[in-house]
Amino acid sequence: MNIKELIRDIPDFPKPGIIFKDITPLLANSEALVYVADQLAELIPTNAKVDKVIGIEARGFILGGMIAQRLGAGFVPVRKKGKLPSDTYSKSYGLEYGEDVLEIHQDAIKKGERILIHDDVLATGGTAKAVCELVEQLGGEIVQCNFIMELSFLNGKDKLDYPIASVLQY
User: So, what pathway does this thing act in (predicted)?
Assistant: First the structure.
């Protein structure tokens, strides 16, 4: 299946000069959605036990939950500031087009749990790095960071000291 055909470019979004990779056509196609979830689960080494999958707001939630189900793991949402109802840890991070803050519940990960971090796109690496730091703060062991796509020309993987995997590279 050629899933690149289901990812459209949106120029000048969210600001001039950015070409946004829109996955909503992929998500709207049930066959492609299942295919990508399977591909993402297969990126994880067979000997890597994963206790929890983190999905990064918001698009990381969709496939993160599907990956967790395939791995028999729990799912942990990492959200933007002020969206989680219980006590949180937070981390600010830079985006290719600004800054933001992510939060995780303080009790979301137990020390020593093995964590897979999932998001839709690895761009500059700021978001994934912030999530890695939150996981480390809670004592989790990061198994891998995986993505639907990597924008390799932005060198985001250089910010991450963990195994990185993606279904697509641009």
Answer: Purine metabolism; AMP biosynthesis via salvage pathway; AMP from adenine: step 1/1
Tokens of 82: 């002020």
Indicate if the pLDDT at residue 63 is higher than 90: yes
Given a contact cutoff of 8 angstroms between Cβ atoms, the answer to whether 154 and 96 are in contact is yes
In CATH, the number for domain 45-169 is 3.40.50.2020
Residue 80 — pLDDT band, cuts 50, 70, 90? very high
Domain ranges of the chain: 45-169
Q: Contact at 8 Å (CB) between 119 and 96? A: no
Confidence of residue 103 (pLDDT cuts 50, 70, 90): very high
Q: Note whether 132 and 102 are within 8 A (CB).
A: no
Query: Residue 55 corresponds to which amino acid?
Result: G
Q: Is the pLDDT of residue 96 over 80?
A: no
Q: Which residues are catalytic?
A: 59, 96
